[in-house]
Write a structure and sequence with these properties.
Blueprint (H helix, E strand, L loop, with lengths): L2 E5 L5 H11 L4 E4 L5 H4 L9 E4 L2 E4 L1 H12 L9 H30 L10 H18 L12 H15 L7 H11 L2 H8 L2
Parallel strand pairs: 1-2
Antiparallel strand pairs: 1-3, 3-4
Helix pairs in contact: 1-3, 1-6, 1-8, 4-5, 4-6
Length: about 200
């Protein structure tokens, strides 16, 4: 199977790059900005990343991560198991409770037309992000989110922590910083980062 990844390493595309490194899969990276001609040529959504797997195109970073993990049998619990349902619940929680705060702040910083931005929402986003991360970390029982095994939600949460730094969100707590030290120490993370 040949893979072509469309997007920018400084976006959610990094998640897929990291997954590819974890899986040891080769891929071509085609630089593409959101809503650019390059991305619209393969995905009418105009969002990055998009993954071309053979002749098929898969949009959305979380969908791509799930597809790759299932296809290559790694970084995930098997589909149809309770462990997978719990892993998916963790992924959805991170997207709903943590990523949503960063995305809302970004929309009101530079994405929405200037007249539609409401700067006053950003402090609330930062506070909610911190509360949600702290609550999540208090529940983690293991080196990774799902225990002893590194999985999809670890990639997403670590990427969000990196995004939070550039967005000047609160510094990670001691527990979160220790968790991030473990995930960022992975050789695949470093390999993906070096390709930025």
């Amino acid at each position: 199977m040949s893979y072509t990844l469309y997007g920018s390493p400084k976006s959610r595309t990094f998640r897929v790059m990291w997954m590819m490194e974890e899986l040891g899969q080769e891929y071509d990276l085609v630089p593409a900005a959101p809503q650019s001609d390059e991305i619209r040529a393969v995905s009418p959504l105009g969002k990055v990343p998009a993954l071309k797997a053979g002749d098929e195109v898969i949009p959305d970073s979380s969908a791509i991560l799930t597809y790759l993990a299932d296809k290559h049998g790694a970084l995930t619990a098997p589909a149809g198991t309770v462990a997978r349902a719990k892993q998916d619940a963790m992924t959805f929680r991170i997207l709903d409770d943590i990523e949503a705060q960063l995305w809302t702040a970004a929309r009101h910083s530079f994405i929405l037309p200037e007249g539609e931005r409401v700067a006053e929402v950003k402090p609330t986003c930062r506070a909610e992000y911190q509360r949600n991360v702290d609550k999540l970390m208090a529940e983690v029982d293991g080196p990774f989110l799902m225990g002893e095994t590194f999985t999809i939600p670890d990639i997403i949460l670590t990427h969000l922590a990196n995004w939070a730094i550039s967005a000047k969100f609160p510094e990670p707590s001691a527990d979160f910083a220790a968790y991030l030290k473990r995930t960022r120490a992975r050789p695949a993370f470093k390999a993906a980062r070096d390709k930025q």
